[in-house]
């Protein structure tokens, strides 16, 4: 027999999940208090990384129903919500969202809704990439040096290359120049093993 669970989340300790529980009950869902999972955690933390949600996942079985009042209870961005709903659907758990008219997001109509959410997620990702690239291009045009600042000066790098040719070990050079073996290897790769 299908069991009904509610996941109610708030972001800060001065908020309460009581309204979410009442909203679910008012929508006609009968809730056993033991199956109401409440949590105070930021929505920016992916659902799978939340302690309360992780415990809920351990309890859910095929055929169970999970109810949330709004999609943002599951996650702050479309990509996280989509991944969570797809994972639950894969486990045979139906996900109902009251803000979407109580739609089961794993049903055909719900899958269509999730398709729209997937398109929004892809759009969000593309915008993020576009903004990042625009910011990098602007920084380059302004003459800003991108990436991690070099820990070794050009003169030190030349000295390291010469000492490596003489056979000095990576560890000894790292110790002498106060850096790590990886930094010495990068210098060696760039100066002693040019492309081509």
Features:
alpha/beta, about 200 residues, single chain, about 10% strand, Rossmann fold, five-stranded mixed β-sheet
Task: Describe what you observe in this structure.
The chain has helices spanning 18-26, 51-59, 78-90, 108-141, 154-165, 170-177, 181-192, and strands spanning 4-10, 36-40, 65-68, 94-97, 103-104. Helices cover 49% and strands 11% of the residues. By secondary structure, the protein is of the alpha/beta class. It is built from 7 helices and 5 strands. The protein has a 5-stranded mixed β-sheet, with helices on both faces. The chain has 2 domains: 4-118, Rossmann fold (3-Layer(aba) Sandwich), CATH 3.40.50; 154-192. It is elongated and about 80 Å long. α3 links the parallel β3 (65-68) and β4.
């Amino acid at each position: 027999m299908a069991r009904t669970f509610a996941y109610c989340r708030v972001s800060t300790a001065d908020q309460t999940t009581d309204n979410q529980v009442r909203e679910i009950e008012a929508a006609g869902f009968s809730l056993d208090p033991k199956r109401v999972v409440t949590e105070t955690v930021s929505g920016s933390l992916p659902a799978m990384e939340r302690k309360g949600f992780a415990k809920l996942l351990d309890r859910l079985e095929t055929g169970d129903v999970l109810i949330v009042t709004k999609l943002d209870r599951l996650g702050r961005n479309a990509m996280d919500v989509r991944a969570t709903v797809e994972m639950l659907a894969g486990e045979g758990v139906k996900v109902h969202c009251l803000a979407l008219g109580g739609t089961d997001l794993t049903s055909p109509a719900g899958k269509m809704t999730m398709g729209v959410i997937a398109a929004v997620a892809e759009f969000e990702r593309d915008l993020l990439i576009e903004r990042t690239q625009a910011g990098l291009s602007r920084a380059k045009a302004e003459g800003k040096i991108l990436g991690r600042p070099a820990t070794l000066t050009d003169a030190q790098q030349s000295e390291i290359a010469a000492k490596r040719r003489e056979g000095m070990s990576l560890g000894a050079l790292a110790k002498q120049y106060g850096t790590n073996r990886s930094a010495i290897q990068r210098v060696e790769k760039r100066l002693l093993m040019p492309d081509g």
